[in-house]
Amino acid sequence: MEVFNISSIKKIDKQNIIYINSNNQKSKIDLNKCRRNWVSFINRSDNFVDSEGNSVKITEEQSNCVGRRDWFSEKPYYEFFSDSIIRFEIITKKIFFDYFKKYWKQKYYNEFRYIEEELVKNGWTTFDLG
After folding, report:
1. Which of 8, 101, 102, 120 is 20 to 30 Å from 25 at the Cα level?
2. Can you say how many angstroms the Cα of residue 130 is from the centroid of all Cα atoms in its chain?
3. Res 45: pLDDT
4. What is the dihedral of CA 6, 71, 85, 5, to 10 degrees?
5. How confident is the model at residue 97 (pLDDT cuts 50, 70, 90)?
6. DSSP 27
7. Which distant-in-sequence residues (6+ apart) come within 8 Å of 69 by Cβ?
8. Beta-strand (E) ranges in 1-130?
9. Shortest CA distance to 47 belongs to which of 129, 116, 126?
10. Percentage of residues in the chain having pLDDT higher than 70
């Protein structure tokens, strides 16, 4: 899995996420491919069930999900289901006074939330892990 800083994401549109890769080059993630891979992931696992406990199988038309996100991880992240999963993390930096604050990580929330807002604005979403 490739991992990048969330600030590497430069643009999200209806088809792609444009980001700067480790070679300092623009790269793109095809969101339609991510949706296809997400649907395959869900359908391969039996971890997703309906309210009656039956295994859920979905089609691409039923989903606009392209990955997953977790704000409560030590390094909050988004993972996009391209052919190989690509993760974008928030690299948190604690300064001295942050050790005395219970919610010090909140200062990064706007940056984290912006990604989901851009995805939703363009017709996509991610699965919330926490």
Report:
1. 120
2. 12
3. 82
4. 20
5. low
6. E
7. 76, 77, 78, 79, 112, 115, 116, 126, 127, 128, 129
8. 2-5, 9-12, 16-20, 26-30, 65-70, 77-80, 86-89, 125-128
9. 129
10. 88
Convert 44-69 to b/e letters by CB count within 10 Å (16 or more is b). Answer: eeeeeeeeeeeeeeeeeeebbbbbbb
- CA angle centred on 90, ends 64 and 72, rounded to 5°: 70
64: containing domain: 2-128
More confident: 108 or 75: 75
Sequence-separated (6 or more) residues with CB below 8 Å from residue 122:
12, 13, 14, 31
CB 78 within 8 A of CB 88: yes
Cα maximum dimension of the chain: 50
Give residue-wise pLDDT tens across range 39-59: 999 898 877 777 888 887 888
Q: Do residues 19 and 29 make contact, with C-beta atoms less than 8 angstroms apart?
A: yes
